[in-house]
Amino acid sequence: MTVTVPSKVNVHLAVGPARDDGYHELTTVFQALSLTDTVTVSVAEESSMHVAGEGEKIVPRDERNLAWRAVDVLAEHLDTTPAELGPVRIALEKGIPVAGGMAGGSADAAGALLALSTLWKLDLSRDELTRLAGKLGSDVPFSLVGGTALGTGRGEELLPVLTRHTFHWVLAFAQRGLSTPRVYQELDRLRDVGDPPSAVGDHDVVIEALASGDPHRLAELIGNDLQIAAVSLRPELRRTLRAGVEAGALAGLVSGSGPTCAFLCEDAESAVQVSARLSGAGVCRTVRVASGPVPGARVVEPDGGPSGGEPPWDPRPPQAHA
Ligand SMILES: C[C@](O)(CO)[C@H](O)COP(=O)(O)OP(=O)(O)OC[C@H]1O[C@@H](n2ccc(N)nc2=O)[C@H](O)[C@@H]1O
Ligand SMILES: Nc1ncnc2c1ncn2[C@@H]1O[C@H](COP(=O)(O)OP(=O)(O)OP(=O)(O)O)[C@@H](O)[C@H]1O
Q1: Looking at CB atoms within 10 Å, which of 189, 193, 259, 318 has the fewest?
Q2: Nearest ligand, CA of residue 96?
Q3: What gap in Å lies between CA 104 and CA 223, rounded to an integer?
């Protein structure tokens, strides 16, 4: 059973105060991008985890792997144990940069949840899967539902944002990743020493710009409160951000907790030009072109094409949460 799962960029990320539970209250606008991971699961003689592609040398293959943790969450939900569910082989083909700020691990967790619940014919509802996803991480519910969505709470409470238009992005992968908790800690430290509480505007105008389909409007409004913290930890990101705009992007920002930089471009053709110029500028490890919004985690046929009929789990976002 193979599932393809998108990456994400936060076109708007406003970070509120730290909560008692150690998380920060967020208001964010997620967009799922066509840069993806695939998760393939199968019944096996013994359990194993295989990783190829981005970060194949550093992604843990044991219980620390978020895809593996999906087995535990499903077993707990079913009031059984992974042993009872039986050994499975999980293979990850990764296109999303590890610890890159694009929800790479979160995508694999969402993909494993959907693939395993389909393989084991658990018949879980969309809302049940999304709730279980929230147990695996704040970004995992969005990896499951995809599209464009307003995220609140830790980022796990989702409200779908209907946008018909496709936006074109160039992604600059950094040499090495950044720890998400470390970036949040750095933001708290910067705020303690007097940095502005929030640099980003209001999410409503971002949603209107997305609905308009006008990349120029959206380019003026994208913003990420974590950017100042990511740049504080990785000052070289300033050069990357500048180089992307000099290469012809309309605007750029750090994706999530970074260090990947995402550049919004005028159209598909411009994105190809920007990626070619940026890859020659010596400011990042490698460059990818992607577009969004795309659907969330989806079961694909063995030949890799999208499944013919209605997926066992409808990829459209759940009904708006309260
Ligand atoms: C930066 C974003 O990617 C933006 O979408 C997310 O907020 C991070 O989502 P994630 O990686 O799934 O985060 P989780 O695995 O839930 O949490 C990892 C750590 O990040 C910090 N964290 C995460 C989410 C949040 N709203 N506030 C936080 O302070 C906490 O230290 C937490 O222990
Ligand atoms: N399947 C996985 N893919 C990538 N990293 C994983 C996976 N499982 C566990 N990890 C660990 O999680 C850490 C964070 O990786 P991840 O790719 O989720 O960060 P990220 O893309 O910045 O996530 P987010 O944007 O949600 O903060 C990595 O350092 C890695 O060791």
Answers
A1: 193
A2: 2
A3: 21
Structural domains in the chain, sorted by start: 2-162 (3.30.230.10), 167-292 (3.30.70.890)
CB-CB contact of 174 with 100 (8 Å): yes
Model confidence band, residue 305 (pLDDT cutoffs 50, 70, 90): low
d(C-alpha 253, C-alpha 245), whole Å? 10
272 and 289 in contact (C-beta within 8 Å)? Answer: yes
Note the pLDDT tens digit of each residue in 58-82: 999 999 999 999 999 999 999 999 9
CA 98 to chain centre: 11
pLDDT tens digits for range 173-193: 999 999 999 999 999 999 999
Average pLDDT taken over every residue of the chain: 93
Report yes or no: 11 and 222 within 8 Å, Cβ to Cβ: yes
Among 102, 113, 182, 184, which residue has the most ligand 1 atoms within 8 Å of its CB, making it the best to mutate?
Answer: 184
Residue 71, amino acid: V
pTM for the predicted model, two decimal places: 0.94
